[in-house]
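[Q] Does anyone have a clean structure-token version of this?
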Amino acid sequence: MTHKTALKIYEWASYLLIVGATLIYIFLKAEGVVLTMLVLVLAMFMRMMMERTRRKACEDEIDELQNDLRRLTRLLAEEKKKEK
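[A] Here you go.
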């Protein structure tokens, strides 16, 4: 699963959980407070997972860019040696 797909899944899951918590609270009033809180905590967990996935995607991109920079620097050094 790509980072983009995981981000969408976590984002939509958190939205659905927030809507679900709202519906639980509206329909169950006082009896559903604990269940509402549990669903909200789960929604927060989904948001944390989304941010973690976003951070990992950024780290992967940084690693890829650093590897490209190293490769290009090496090619430039080789080209300068050929010119001398």
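[Q] Thanks! Anything notable?
[A] The chain has a mean pLDDT of 93.
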